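Appendix B: complex inputs.
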Amino acid sequence: MAQPVTERAYQGRVHEDSRRLMTAWMGELGRAEAERRVTGAIMISGNCVELLRACHVLPMFPEVTALQNAIRHKSLPLILKAEQVGYSSDNCAYVKADVGLVLEGGFGPGKALPFPDLIVCNYVGCNVYVKWFEHLADISGGKLFMLDVPFARTDAPSADDIRYVVRQLEELIQLCESMTGRRFDIDELREVLALSARAQDGYARCKHLTKHHPAPFDSYFDSINMMGPINVLRGTPEAAAFFDAAVAEFESLVAQRLGPLSEERFRTVIEGPPPYPFYKSFRNLFTKWGAVAVQSTYSTVGGIWEFGFRHDPRRPLESIAEQMLRENLTNRSIVARYGQIRRYVEDWQADALVIHSIKSCRLFSAGQGDMREHFIKDLGVPTLLVESDLEDPRYYAEAQIRNRVDAFFEALEHKKLVAAR
Amino acid sequence: MTVDALVTQYRELIAEPLSAVVERWKRDHPGGRAIASYPVWAPNEVIHAAGMLPLAVLGGGTSVELTHADARFQSFVCSIAKSTLELGFQGRLAGVDGLVFSNICDVARNLGSIYKRNFPHTFVEYLHLPQNSTSASVVPYLASELRRLAAAFEAAFGLKVTESALAEAIEAYDALRARVRALYALRIAEPQKLATTELYTILRTMTLVPVGEATAALDTMLGALAARDARPRDRLRVVVEGAFCEQPPLGLLEVLEEAGCYVVEDDLLLGWRWFTADVGGAGDPFEQLASAYVNRAVPSSTRHESREHRSVGLIEKVRRGRADAVVFMPAKFCEPALFDYVLMKQGLERAGIPHMLVEFEEKMWTFERTRNEIETFVESMLFD
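Resulting structure:
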């Protein structure tokens, strides 16, 4: 009988560094009001954090607040609070948790999280972003800037698409100048982008290391340690250094043939965001089977770096526009995502695809049944689909999900045994 | 013909599958092409200018049982997305040469690409309609997007959209929209003369016939309505808001009226009366259409408008329609409508305008509970 698989006692430098950097960023936000720094809310997906940084606007991310509350099991009362004032049970729970936090008095003047002065809605695929930031502006009185990014609907972004986004970026710069009283310096943006490209390079190298057997980290559950620095802190020297250290640590694990589990029995690709309120429980369902995610789509919402795109300091605004238009998961169609996942399955030598379908985010989930159909019927990739939510614990049915996960890996194990004969 | 006779005829037409409508049109127009657009708004003018028949694809209502689409879309996805895909699987869009989707919501966005994957021989185009309403670059961008659509038609069907054809198409649709505005004005003035179930049936029919024919039909209808005699009743004047995409069942609209409401404004089939004034004028017609979309469009939950609060347009509708209350009628799972509900509700409360919420699904077929709720609301208002 096979030995039970256990999680290796691994909370290495990547985890610690990430925590330290993110805590420092939250601390900066907490001091922003007293230090009279201009703050700007922005969304994770295909964001232009480099531009805010170069404009001396301290970025804040409502999604990060929402996920932190979920992972700390604080989201449900906040969601209920928002539902009491009229939000529907069918609305995205990320938004409701954030609105609930405001209603609870956790956000705003004199609080650890200030109201943002500027609200930059980087509309990169997700339509809920538009509503979220309309509501945030309504609540906080912050200045809303709608940065409209045309959805990817042609083979490559057109000259018209790029021109449209660049023009809006220029208008955003003017707005930032008027709010900060500081003149924008394009060379400063180039420096920020160079640091950003260094972080992107490191993140991409980390993700390519999971092609090794065993993968040195879980590209779904452990990627969260890198998603903070790559999405929130991109463009800082600290983020660039963080990824230099991460590459070194993961290369060392590869050399030692160490992975996150005592044994890597199955290699999966996971599609969809995690159930943050049950992050550890959900992970345990896969750990038990020795299943390690060698790639994930969620880790690419901010940007898809592993296929080579980097910000180019020589073409600062154009390259920011290109990244927003094409080089991220959310501004691509769900069917384009099938191609990304297929590449992951093939190049990272995965045994199966796991789809975690969440109610809150229809951008991710609407139509994932079609995705399952395609991978099973057209490509012959064993595919599991489970449903819950990334923020609302009411949609996580542990027993039901466990049954499906167990049945799936039992079948997969049987298939492996038969193939080995 | 009387209004009743015309509406009876129209009811039969809108009950037909799109395939039957297209088959009949193509019989009279050999070699013709038909393009159907998913809600809310699509540039029918560009489709018409290419010499094709613009249509609306509005889901399956109660006419289709889901046998394929519910395996592809989850239970928490709105019904119209699933039933539209199902229409394809069941051959009820046969003869429709192409579909146009746009970025109204995340589900519609995904539906467009999933439809294309499942029906690779159907022309599917996705339009990105701008959400920035104030940038200096937005009108030129949208004009380029409309030109891209025209180029896609040319590449797929060899049908060129010339500027003069587009200018003529804009003129034709301006004429149709003027008639639709006249119908809405008549309903505000004399709601007893035109029930919302009738107005909806008339408008929906207009989504199935060529623009010239639709305009002529509305002239006939306006004439017939002028001759119609109806006694005003003591009813609550309401604005219906939130049903701009998935279509509410006619039975629900009937219940709303039977329970004591005059609907004096609504956002049903909003895309077919998208502009508050004529689009046409001098200059590049692509630019005209783009400029009208940005500067002369009705408020909508699917279009961000930086220049005014979400509730302003709704309150203006209430004032214009001399309405007593608002009935929010979002489709189940419709995120744009459900999010806007909160800001609009707060705006109405600040303005002292009563409101109620009635969620629906296109497949809904029992209305008794809803009838009770509406009756209670109406009574509380009328006898207050």
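Residues 244 and 270 of chain B are 6 Å apart (CA to CA).
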